[in-house]
Design brief:
By secondary structure, this protein is of the alpha+beta class. It has one domain. Helix content is 15%, strand content 37%. The chain has two helices and twelve strands. β8 and β9 form a beta hairpin. The longest helix is centred in the N-terminal third of the chain and has 19 residues.
Length: 165
């Protein structure tokens, strides 16, 4: 009986050892594509020109830098902003502009994309080119002219968001 028990135990040990020896490991890979991060570079700063500090007056800089509005002081054109957009060519992006203001909100600013000669605050499904530049103008509104003069306001902020679809 003892011999049978040892034979059974030995056979069982061999079989269980063989089962462990049957394990398999392998390496696999996952496919992926890399996308360049989007970056924005201001190559030309927008210049709205001289603004009259009367409350509620506006001045708009449009295509070719043409200025119009009761708040535009003096003659001469403004300068459109030129913003270069880089990323992975051929992919679709959405572009959105966010209104801005001066530091103490003496002035507000509504930017506008003028790429096709018309003003827009959003563009969707734009195919990113190898060299892609945005032309921007916009409208500044005087909220508090006296405070703007006191604070020597010389700029307004705005934001551009470009995201892959």
């Amino acid at each position: 009986m003892t011999k049978t028990f040892f034979k059974t135990a030995a056979t069982s040990l061999l079989l269980s050892g063989m089962a462990v020896g049957m394990a398999q490991a392998d390496t696999f890979n996952a496919a992926l594509s890399m996308v360049e991060p989007i970056s924005l570079t201001e190559t030309t700063q927008m210049n709205l020109g001289t603004i009259l500090a009367n409350d509620t007056d506006t001045c708009t800089v449009a295509a070719a830098g043409a200025r119009s509005g009761t708040g535009c002081f003096g003659s001469g054109a403004g300068t459109l902003a030129a913003i270069d957009v880089s990323g992975t060519s051929g992919l679709q992006v959405d572009i959105a502009l966010t209104d801005g203001a001066s530091a103490a909100s003496e002035l507000t600013f509504a930017p506008s994309i003028l790429d096709n000669g018309t003003g827009a605050t959003t563009l969707t499904g734009v195919t990113l080119q190898a060299s892609h530049s945005l032309s921007l103008g916009g409208t500044v509104t005087v909220s508090n002219g006296a405070l703007a003069v006191t604070n020597s306001v010389s700029s307004v902020d705005y934001q551009i968001d470009v995201t892959y679809q």
